[in-house]
Amino acid sequence: MSDHTTGRRPLAVFDIDGTLSDTAHRQHFLERRPRDWDGFFGAAPADRPLAQGVAMAVESAADCEVVYLTGRPERCRADTEEWLARHGLPGGRVWMRGNQDRRPARTAKLEVLRRIARGREVRMLVDDDELVCQAARAAGFPVVRADWAADAPELREAQEGEGRT
Length: 165
Hints:
The chain is an alpha/beta fold. It is 40% helix and 18% strand. The strands form 2 sheets. Strands 5-4-1-6-7 form a 5-stranded parallel β-sheet, with helices on both faces. A two-stranded antiparallel ribbon has the order 2-3.
């Protein structure tokens, strides 16, 4: 497939934490006060893949360009890209938040999603964060709520209140 054709494929945009990767083993870092963000992100390479999310990403690659939109900070890029490759996820651009970006996930991700979507069809955004899903839906994007991970109230609070994932 030529680059010209690839540029016209619709986009399938996937979150990572709680959508493709199981963060349950590292939740304890967020239950402390103050939260241990270095520990939380440092443990990410040991995440188990979430089969339903991985299967959806692999299936999407048949007719979409798969890209990743994560609230992880830029300093986690190498670990994140290695994890995606190790677990057989489709190659695609990884959009990450700046290391100092502390905005709520719904604000930060929607800004990037709008940038990604310029001149492109977004077939779907797949994310576990209900507030991100609501914001994207309200902005006119098709959304699939990733509800297959165990509920993680500490992570949800951190995504929203501290703009960290």
